[in-house]
Amino acid sequence: MLNLFTLRRLSWGSDTGGQEKVELTAAELESLRSELADLEEKEAHLKAQLQHIDEVLRSACHSGYLQIRTRWTALPGEPPPIDDTEVDDWLPRFVVLHGACIFLYFLSTDISPQDSTLLSDILEVGRLPCFKRENDDIQHAFYILTRLGYRYECSSNSMIQVDSWLTALQSYSKLESDKSVRNGSIEMQHD
């Protein structure tokens, strides 16, 4: 077991039986105990993260990584937003559709989401035109417009993943498919 620890500060000695023994000072022993306690705490934290991820993924309606950027719609009387279509500010986020919410995490291993949106706040979802990124990957995209004025633009290089998200949002958000509007978007029906 002591061979696992490669601490240079430990003094090694030999006894008459040919077995090696380690001579530790009280401070070195306390330091080792502290290191072991820190490792046990880190292990417990990692286990909690794994249990959380497992719970989220088992109970989620839909989840996966998407490239996301957030825009705001202009309020009445405000000038239209600046055309920033050339700005590459897409960030990877782990997105989870769970219950009545969409949660956005930095990573799938995060315990707390970075952002969330209630499905009841969604006014409209729809497709966006495909575009190319710097690495020449074609990105398929869609948007989610909320009543708070947020517009989440989501993309993936997989058209199947985008279709799957649109289907999930439509089915879990009580979308009314006969209320189609231009650009393939669908308006939400709220009770």
UniProtKB/TrEMBL annotation:
Keyword tags: Coiled coil
SMART domains xref list: PH
Organism expressing this protein natively: Trifolium subterraneum
Classification via SUPFAM superfamilies: PH domain-like
Span of domain PH: 59-174
Name of the protein described by the UniProt record: PH domain-containing protein
Coiled coil: 22-56
Presence of keyword Nuclease: no
InterPro entries the UniProt entry points to: PH-like_dom_sf (IPR011993), PH_domain (IPR001849)
